[in-house]
Amino acid sequence: MTRRARLGVFLAGLLASIAGCQKKEVRTEDLFQAQALGLGYLETAQLPQAEAQFKKVIDLAPKDPLGYANLGVTYLRGSHFDEAEKQLKRARELDPSNVDVGLMIAKLYQASGRAAEARSTLEQLKQSASRNPHVLYALAELDAPPDNATAPTPTAATPTDARYATELRDVLAVSPANIAVRLELASAMVRQGQADSAVHQLEEVRRASAEPPNCDCGQTSSLVSTITMDTSNNTNVVTVMATLAPGRGSQANGANMIAASGG
Questions:
Q1: Ramachandran sector of residue 233 (left: φ over 0; alpha: ψ -120 to 50; beta: rest)
Q2: What residues contact residue 194 under an 8 Å CB cut-off, 6+ apart?
Q3: Which residues in 135-156 are b (16+ Cβ under 10 Å) and which e?
Q4: Does the first or last residue of the chain, that is N or C, have fewer Cβ atoms within 10 Å of its Cβ?
Q5: What is the pLDDT of residues 149-206, one digit of tens each?
Q6: Angle at which helices 65-77 and 47-60 pack, to 10 degrees?
Q7: Which domains are delineated in the chain?
Q8: What single string gives the DSSP state of each residue in 171-206?
Q9: Which helix (H) or strand (E) holds 73?
C-alpha cells in the first residue's frame, strides 16, 4: 500500500471516528432531553406524555435502570399496577442495590393491597440500608393509622400503635430534625395514653427553629402554632395545632389533636 493510500485509510478512519462521536453526543443530548421532559410531565401529572418520554429514554439507553424506574413510577401514578411492576422489576434487575427502586416496588405492593410483600421488601432493604430514613419511614407507614382517623382516646390504643411509635423513633434516631415525624410520634403516644411522653415530643418541636429543615421523608411542615398543657384536676391535656402539607390524618388538615389521661 502506497503512502497516499495509507493516508487515505487513516483519514477515512478518523472521519468515521468523529462521526461516531458526534452521533454519540446527539444521542446523549436526546437522552437528557427525554429524561428532563419526562420528569416535567410526571411532576405535572401529564402521565401519557411522561410515558412517551420515558419509553424514549429506554430506547436510547436500554441498559440504564433509570428509564425503567421512571416509567414504572408513571404507571404507578396512574394505578396501572401490572405495568408498573414489570418496569420496576426490570430496573431492579439492572441495579439490584438501588434503594430507591426497592422503595418504589414496596410502594407498589402497598398501593395494590399487598402489604405483606411490601413489608418483606422493606425488611430486605433495611438489612443493607439500616440508617436510611426513607426505608425506616416506609416501614412505619405500613403500621400508620388510616388517613381519616380521628384522635382516639387512650383506651383505643392497639399493638399496632406501639409498633408504629417504635418505628417512628427509629426514623428520628437517624433524622432527629424531622418535625413531621416527631408530630406523628406525639400523636401515636397520645393514642397510647402517654401524655407526658407526647408533651416531651411537642416541646422538642417547639424548640425547633422557626423555619424547619426539609423533612427527610418527603413531607414539608409549618410550625406548631400552639402547644398548651393543662394540669388542673390531676389531668394532663395536650393540645397541638399544626399544618403539614402534604401530610397524613389530622395533621394534614390542620386539625386539633387533643388527648387526656388521668394523672
A1: left
A2: 261
A3: bbbbbbbbbbbeeeeebeebee
A4: N
A5: 544 444 455 668 889 999 999 999 999 989 999 999 999 999 888 999 999 999 888 8
A6: 160
A7: 26-111 (1.25.40.10), 154-216+225-244 (no CATH)
A8: HHHH-TT-HHHHHHHHHHHHHTT-HHHHHHHHHHHH
A9: helix 65-77
Nearest to 73 by CA among 51, 52, 93, 58: 51
Cα–Cα dist 209/25, whole Å: 47
Are the C-beta atoms of 47 and 78 separated by less than 8 Å? yes
Q: Do β-strands 235-241 and 256-262 pair in parallel, antiparallel, or remain unpaired?
A: antiparallel
Is residue 108 a contact partner of residue 92, using CB atoms and an 8 Å limit?
no
pLDDT for 114-140, tens place per residue? Answer: 999 999 999 999 999 999 999 999 999
Considering only residues 11 and 190, tell me which one the structure prediction assigns the higher pLDDT.
190
- Grid cell of 77 as nine digits: 401514578
Question: Running DSSP on this structure, what letter comes out for residue 210?
Answer: S
Nearest Cα residue to 244 out of 199, 183, 198: 183
- In degrees and rounded to multiples of 5, residue 207 shows phi and psi of -80, -10
Please give the Cα distance from 17 to 11 (Å, whole number): 10
Query: HSE-up of 209 (CA within 13 Å, CB side)?
Result: 6
Gap between the Cα atoms of 195 and 200, Å rounded? 9
| Nine-digit cell string for 163 | 409498633
